[in-house]
């Protein structure tokens, strides 16, 4: 039990009734405050529970006070924190978005349409369910278990173009996929969709785990609508993956030119100093027309789908990252709104002052940046802010409430770090699994995977009882006799100089030693020596070594013991 202690600073010099009462009141207040502080910093069952609590206590009051939900993003609901990871595909029409999704899922899904014309005219959320069905947009936005309620603000025109496609497949047990309408080009851009397409894309981009931009090797032109879409996605560059699809439809020489042209186009739009990673391949089930780059396509295919496969285990850290990004934006937004409020006259000339502040918003940004030490990257897009500010009466904005800012800073500096320390164990506690099923089950453990017959995989699918290392056994026996002097086993010291002739780093040689010393006795017999030399050749040929020896590389004597066990 916590004891109430009267500190020396509180002891009155004259123990009158008033002085003693004041002292006791101050001490009790401090004691109760300490109890509440302990309660606030209690540990949570999961990162998601912690984020929910911090949002309602620290972030939401600030957002509400300074109209953050009107300017940037709707209020978060419980479903926003609990929803499974998701991937959104964006691209111009006929770039293969729907075919790409079909390739991932491994089957057709309800509402799927594929064609050279703009067939997908809806935002389609592909989710898991017991029976195939289609859920209309109006039903989705009223479902409390779904995070789509804020989309109702885009009106019936959008909701009529929004639906969920429900189907049963293992892929969707841990992942949700989102197909989007083909982005228009040419004169089609002039057609009014009836809703703000760019704003809808931004809403989804803020919440999904990955955004895949799809380009067609035959269609590299970036329309005005596509350019505006990419510019909006720049603020989510950590989620962005770019795919050059249908790459087998051009020759290797043409592909090199296409790739260069795409990188040049992206360099003018994607706002990043680093070179953008582009995944090149053909993500569908059709035969390859040009097979010269088959190996490259397989490696790119494997890299991209491994990233998507690991999304469930990264879901908590993604939510935490998005939460911190939102918090920083909300803080800067509060500074902007309160600064505009403070610059408004009390009586006359309000409209003139409002227009002047909007025109000089860049000056307001610089003033806030200097006064509060805010990074320039935390400020919202200045042109969007100017457009939205025109509809508001600045005199009704709130002045800066330092207590709200202090609460947010306390959350970011003291409450978020304990959540981050929970991340490594969260996936283990929640028993989070990688995405399985569909294309993900076809990436490994088959003779058609990339490198299936190379490096350590050589001989894995031969179907032969002959040990693959025995192919060069005569060579290995000769060198073993030379260094062993006729003994059955040689020590590590005896083989050290021989293996170091390869000039491989000590760490690689140590890995070869550990893999080849299958019985862990610190000695090599002839089979282990042969295995060590086999692994040495694999590494010198440029292939990576595994950290666990594959079963087909086990020496025959060791394999017999292992099989018997």
Could you write a compact summary of the structure shown?
48% of the residues lie in helices and 8% in strands. By secondary structure, it is α/β, with parallel strands linked by helices.
Could you characterize the architecture of this molecule?
Helices cover 48% and strands 8% of the residues. The chain has helices at 17-40, 47-65, 68-71, 78-82, 97-105, 137-140, 155-159, 197-207, 224-233, 252-267, 294-309, 311-342, 350-359, 361-372, 382-389, 402-429, 473-484, 492-500, 506-516, 526-540, 556-564, and strands at 86-91, 123-128, 133-136, 162-167, 176-179, 210-216, 240-245, 278-280, 490-491, 523-524. An 8-stranded mixed sheet has the order 3-4-2-5-1-6-7-8, with helices on both faces. A two-stranded antiparallel ribbon has the order 9-10. α10 (252-267) links the parallel β7 (240-245) and β8 (278-280). The longest helix has 32 residues, at 311-342. The two termini are 57 Å apart.
């Amino acid at each position: 039990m916590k004891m109430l202690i009267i500190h020396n600073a509180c002891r009155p010099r004259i123990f009158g009734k008033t002085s003693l009462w004041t002292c006791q009141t101050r001490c009790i207040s401090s004691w109760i405050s300490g109890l509440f502080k302990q309660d606030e910093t209690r540990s949570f069952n999961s990162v998601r529970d912690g984020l929910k609590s911090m949002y309602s206590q620290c972030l939401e009051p600030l957002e509400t006070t300074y109209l953050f939900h009107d300017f940037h993003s709707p209020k978060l609901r419980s479903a926003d924190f609990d929803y499974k990871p998701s991937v959104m595909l964006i691209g111009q029409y006929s770039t293969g978005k729907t075919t790409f999704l079909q390739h991932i899922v491994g089957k057709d899904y309800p509402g799927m349409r594929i064609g050279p014309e703009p067939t997908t005219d809806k935002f389609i959320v592909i989710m898991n369910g017991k029976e195939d069905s289609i859920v209309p947009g109006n039903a989705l936005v009223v479902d409390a278990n779904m995070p789509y309620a804020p989309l109702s603000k885009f009106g019936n025109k959008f909701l009529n173009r929004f639906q969920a496609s429900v189907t049963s497949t293992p892929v969707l047990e841990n992942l949700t996929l989102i197909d989007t309408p083909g982005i228009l080009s040419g004169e089609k851009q002039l057609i009014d969709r009836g809703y703000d397409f760019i704003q809808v894309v931004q809403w989804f981009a803020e919440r999904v785990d990955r955004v895949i931009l799809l380009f067609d090797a035959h269609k590299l032109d970036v329309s005005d609508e596509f350019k505006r879409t990419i510019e909006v996605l720049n603020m989510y560059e950590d989620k962005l993956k770019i795919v050059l699809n249908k790459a087998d439809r051009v020759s290797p020489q043409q592909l090199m030119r296409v790739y260069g042209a795409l990188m040049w186009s992206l360099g003018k739009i994607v706002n990043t100093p680093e070179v953008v990673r582009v995944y090149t391949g053909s993500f569908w089930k059709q035969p390859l027309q040009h097979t010269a780059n088959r190996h490259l396509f397989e490696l790119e295919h494997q890299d991209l789908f491994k990233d998507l496969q690991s999304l469930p285990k990264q879901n908590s850290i993604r939510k935490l990252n998005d939460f911190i990004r939102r918090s920083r934006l909300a803080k800067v937004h509060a500074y902007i709104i309160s600064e505009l409020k403070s610059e408004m006259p009390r009586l006359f000339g309000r409209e003139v002052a409002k227009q002047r502040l909007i025109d000089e918003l860049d000056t307001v940004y610089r003033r806030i940046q200097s006064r509060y030490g805010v990074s320039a990257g935390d400020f919202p897009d200045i042109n969007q802010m100017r457009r939205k500010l025109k509809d508001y009466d600045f005199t009704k904005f709130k002045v800066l409430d330092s207590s709200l800012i202090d609460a947010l800073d306390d959350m970011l500096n003291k409450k978020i770090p304990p959540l981050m320390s929970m991340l490594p164990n969260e996936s283990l506690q929640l028993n989070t699994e990688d995405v399985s099923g569909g294309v993900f089950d076809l990436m490994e453990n088959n003779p058609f995977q990339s490198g299936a017959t190379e490096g350590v995989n050589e001989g894995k699918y031969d179907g032969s009882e002959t040990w693959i290392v025995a192919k060069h056994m005569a060579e290995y026996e000769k060198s073993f006799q030379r260094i062993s002097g006729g003994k059955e086993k040689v020590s590590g010291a005896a083989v050290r100089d021989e293996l170091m002739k390869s000039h491989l780093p000590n760490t690689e040689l140590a890995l070869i030693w550990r893999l080849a010393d299958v019985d862990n006795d610190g000695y090599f017999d002839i089979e282990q020596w042969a295995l060590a030399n086999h692994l040495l050749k694999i590494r010198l040929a440029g292939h990576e070594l595994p950290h666990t020896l594959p079963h087909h590389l086990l020496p025959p004597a060791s394999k017999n013991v292992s099989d018997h066990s």
